[in-house]
Specification:
Chain lengths: 174, 288
């Protein structure tokens, strides 16, 4: 709990278990970890269950929980930290943790071009996650509307972005 | 009035129609938008889910560039807006975060560059009087469900310029443009955002729920101000119907497209051809 609180800046210990966060959560029906349950599991130090849950990857970061918490806990910020900890500690990622592959593919594209190159990002994501055929009908539809360019829209500051990524990596290694 | 415009990645790809209509709208209002030279991705959800450092430094890089232009930042994308504001908030209020952003970007930044969303600029800077005096083609016959989504409303302390649970600024603007707006309870419900990529079944359920409610409230179209909301609600109507049952087809337009049309811009000027669910029939009633 101490690590989660320090990194997120959220006072998880003040959670009253009122469940207001969970009742407004858009992924309630699909998740295996409601946000109020996550708060309680942090209290109880149930690291393995938390970091191995599908729920932290199903969270859409809509921040409804953070906005409504009567104790002012940034619940969505806690979810961010749990995702980072799951990756850092190489927790056994559940099969629905495709979010991790998406995040890596997205950030890789930003590192290379300074901006997201959607077509490349999606191709790499599909290969990483082996989630090959989901929504394949969407690509031609988007292309027809010129919404999926074939070339990256490179930033002229792509070099500065690479530097930021390099510095962030060095910082994380420390 | 002059703004440092932060387009964001979507505005030049999956939401080019949002970018095009926003630029055309501001040109029609005689407000200068200067694109931030060499702007880079804000990092979006992947950054704040993966690295505290990137979530601070990528927005800071853009805000440093905007600072050199000496103008407040305006962005149309709800997600970029939210990330730029969140980073600014941390950099202003937490010395540790400021130090970190400065170390990672290797440049000083105190969090002092103001960041505005396009709706905030239209309502609070441009103002109702200016907009209503320029309406040339009132949006008659439109009954609009204004959908604000998540990132313009939450977290309230960081982003909100409107009521976080029951926002009304978009409604007000479109009423000025001659449209009716409907009262409905899902103005700030989440569409599932980038879960569209990883868990589209969740998004189909949410899209079904949101659009069914909009139709039930009597809307004949939806107005949005976020690229991901638009894509999910527009592109996934068939999938949502297949998975969860029938609901009326609803065009989903950017608020900038609707206002642009009302200000007399052409369908092409605001990129209406980019919509999956077309709006030709809907707009046929609006007087030319």
């Amino acid at each position: 709990m101490r690590e989660v609180e320090a990194r997120s800046g959220a006072r998880v210990s003040s959670c009253l278990q009122c469940h207001k966060c969970s009742s407004g959560c858009p992924i309630g029906p699909e998740t295996d970890l409601l946000s109020s349950q996550a708060m309680r599991m942090i209290h109880l130090g149930m690291e393995e269950e938390l970091l191995g849950s599908r729920g932290i990857w199903l969270c859409a970061s809509c921040q409804t929980c953070s906005a409504r918490c009567p104790m002012g806990i940034d619940v969505a910020g806690v979810m961010d930290v749990l995702r980072m900890m799951a990756v850092e500690r190489k927790a056994a990622l559940p099969d629905k943790a495709r979010g991790r592959h998406f995040h890596r593919s997205f950030l890789g594209s930003v590192r290379r071009h300074g901006r997201v190159f959607e077509l490349e990002m999606m191709a790499i994501y599909k290969l990483r996650s082996m989630d090959l055929f989901r929504d394949m009908d969407k690509a031609p539809k988007l292309m027809k509307k010129s919404k999926l360019p074939l070339l990256p829209n490179r930033s002229r500051s792509a070099g500065e972005v690479r530097k930021v990524f390099r510095n962030a990596r060095k910082e994380e290694e420390r | 009035m002059r703004y440092a415009f932060f387009p964001g990645c979507s505005m030049e790809a999956t939401a080019w129609d949002f970018g095009k209509s926003a630029r055309a709208l501001f040109k029609a209002l005689d407000i200068r938008l200067e694109e931030i030279p060499g702007w880079v991705c804000c990092g979006s959800t992947p950054a704040h889910s993966s690295s505290e450092g990137l979530a601070l430094a990528l927005p800071a890089l853009n805000l440093q560039k905007a600072g050199a232009m000496g103008a407040p930042v305006m962005t149309a994308c709800a997600a970029c807006y939210s990330r730029l504001r969140a980073a600014n908030h941390r950099i202003q209020n937490d010395p540790e975060s400021r130090k970190r952003a400065e170390q990672l970007t290797e440049k000083p930044y105190d969090g002092g560059v103001a960041v505005h969303h396009i709706l905030d600029v239209l309502v609070n800077h441009v103002g109702r009087d200016v907009i209503s005096s320029r309406i040339k083609r009132p949006l008659r016959g439109l009954r609009i469900a204004c959908y604000y989504g998540c990132l313009l409303s939450r977290p309230p302390g960081i982003v909100a310029y409107d009521d976080p649970e029951h926002p009304s600024c978009m409604d007000g603007l479109l009423e000025l443009a001659g449209a009716e707006t409907v009262q409905w309870p899902f103005k700030t419900e989440c569409c599932g955002a980038s879960l569209a990529i990883t868990n589209n079944d969740v998004v189909n359920r949410l899209v079904h729920r949101i659009l069914s409610m909009a139709a039930l409230a009597g809307a004949n179209c939806v107005a949005v101000a976020c690229p991901l909301c638009q894509m999910n609600l527009d592109l996934r109507q068939d999938d949502a119907r297949k998975a969860h049952g029938d609901f009326p087809t609803l065009p989903v337009l950017y608020v900038t497209q609707l206002l642009g049309i009302a200000l007399g811009l052409s369908e092409k000027d605001v990129g209406l051809e980019a919509l999956t669910v077309g709006a030709d029939k809907l707009l046929a009633g609006a007087a030319r």
